[in-house]
Design goal:
Layout: H1 7-10, E1 13-16, E2 27-31, H2 44-53, E3 63-67, H3 76-86, E4 92-95, H4 98-110, E5 122-126, H5 135-146, E6 151-156, E7 159-165
Parallel strand pairs: 1-5, 2-3, 3-4, 5-6
Antiparallel strand pairs: 6-7
Helix pairs in contact: 2-3, 4-5
Length: 169
């Protein structure tokens, strides 16, 4: 009887699992419309007072995306004031929706990687995860690996889709 050999585990493939870069903390959408007069008009004095009396500690260790769902013209400084109020408490504050927040959290984590560790390596970007990974994170990993990896595949080690292979001159 011939011995069964696991060629996947014996290969030089490196699996890059984006799930490992999922940032901890709740994701919260902060809608500026709740601080507007009748949900439509920003009155500076009242807006500043709302910021002053609001309990910002409820955003402690959370990741916050600031939006305005009202069809209102909001001056840039208003978003900046909200960021200043949130920053001492929140892990991360961005302007945008929850998908943009998730993308930024992954971008932040991926920016801390020493990509040289993957030079001339055969890479598999893992496709399945227990957390929702935004498409932007897959694109970012691909962009960073494209110039250094010898090959890039997508999926699981037992079933991959080839994406890129460096040409040898």
């Amino acid at each position: 009887m011939e011995e069964i050999v696991n060629r996947v585990s014996n290969s030089q493939l490196i699996t890059f699992d984006l799930e490992e870069f999922y940032a901890p903390g709740d994701r919260v959408l902060f809608d500026i419309k709740d601080f507007l007069f009748q949900g439509l008009i920003l009155k500076e004095k009242e807006f500043r007072e709302s910021i002053k009396v609001h309990d910002w500690s409820q955003y402690s260790k959370k990741n916050v995306a600031i939006v305005c769902s009202a069809d209102a013209i909001i001056p840039t400084w208003a978003f900046m004031l909200l960021s200043i109020a949130l920053q001492p408490y929140a892990n991360r504050v961005i302007f945008g929706n929850l998908l943009e927040l998730e993308s930024q959290l992954f971008y932040d984590a991926l920016s801390k990687i020493d990509w040289e560790n993957y030079r001339d390596k055969k890479m598999i970007i893992k496709g399945c995860s227990k957390v929702e990974v935004p498409l932007s994170a897959y694109v970012e990993v691909t962009n960073r690996l494209r110039s250094i990896a010898s090959s890039i595949m997508f999926g699981e080690p037992c079933s991959t889709v080839p994406l890129f292979k460096k040409k040898i001159n």
